[in-house]
Design brief:
Quinone Oxidoreductase, Chain A, domain 1; Rossmann fold; 6-stranded parallel beta sheet; 15 strands; globular
Amino acid sequence: MKAVSIREHGGPEVLEWIEVEDPTPAAGEVVVDVAASGLNRADVMQRWGLYPLQPGWSPYPGLEVSGRISAVGEGVSGWQVGDEVCALLTGGGYAQRVAVPAGQLLTIPKGIGLVEAAGLPEVTATVWSNVVMTAGLKAGETLLVHGGAGGVGTMAIQIAKALGARVVTTVGGPQKAAQARELGADVAIDYRTEDFTEHGPYDVILDIVGGDYLERNVHSLAADGRLVVIGLQKGLEGRLDLAEMVFKRASVHGTTLRTRSKADKAEIVAEVLKNVWPMIENGTVKLVVDQTVSMSDAAEGHRLMEAGGHLGKILLVNDDNR
């Protein structure tokens, strides 16, 4: 089979579509013939060498796919060859085939196409696990979403509104602000010209930025507020005012989906199937796809993501397996 390999750390040009060994399913796994893979910021960080791989992880990028099961490993029940699925991965999605733990498989929601479904697992699992399972967002509370135009942001806006929350988001530019409001955001802040701290306080903040946003995020929290940091686009360090945290009874959570155990991921996937899939199937929540790119030209997908002009997901389509 073929997969996208990272030749060396660097720009998009280091991605290569090469021949690699076919995967075989271990006990508890299936092999999926990949129709498409969702592109995520973590893939870009991995390409730059900023997301070190752990033992046992695939060297190929790609944290989510859609496709059809082509092989079933020992001990797997409830799934069979030919089933159309989407899946949450630890890596390896930029390929024609990938082995997946059965607990990380999801059915395709009704009304969603096979290719389009590749953009669902990572964003839905990220939003639900962090905003609901970790931060405990409740109806009537206010959520601040940084990066409301991206895949996670567009999904977070919609899920939070479906849960009855007030949603504020930061975006880059008036066009994206208008698009965020169309998705349900009550307030859309152009971070280039406005200060999000002036629109607080916030009960929950979902932060993909990191770096010097930390101090301002904590300052913007309401009493008993919860900050969840899931990205580090502006750096690894920030200032934390412990006195402000203590007086507010605030909490700061740093999380990443990729490093969670198989058991944790299976629990999150089950919660997504139970709670988010009905929202998608009844039209309350929709997946926002900006565009699709051929998987063999993954470098172009990475260029588009780094340019920052997209709204929602960019998908890499494996034309041979559609």
